[in-house]
Amino acid sequence: MRGGSRLCEQQLRRLAIQSYGTPSDLAKREHGFNAWMKTGLRVYDLLRELGYPTYRGGAVPGTAMEVFPHATSVVLAGALPPARASRTARREWRAGVLEAAGVAAAGLASSDAVDAALAALTGVLAL
Asked: Residues near 31 by Cβ (< 8 Å), separated by ≥ 6?
């Protein structure tokens, strides 16, 4: 980590893709808001123990990777979502990205469902 965030987070910001930065300050990591990050890191530890190391480059099969559905949707759409869009409009925009990629999104009623589909699509595309 450099400058308070991971290199991949810095690269996303250069593309105007916003994400939550992973705190480099250990005290900030203890803040309750960041509990989801700790849970995610524990999941990667468990996956590694099961024989699925974290993807670091090269062949994808048999690895675990971090997926950021917003970044996937921006890359696939070739554009950022509309500025100042409501939560519902952002979900609909992401669902439209899925549809354009050939994924039926009509039954995906929540942002979490749309994001899960985008994460799955990312994995399929990586393979």
From this structure: 23
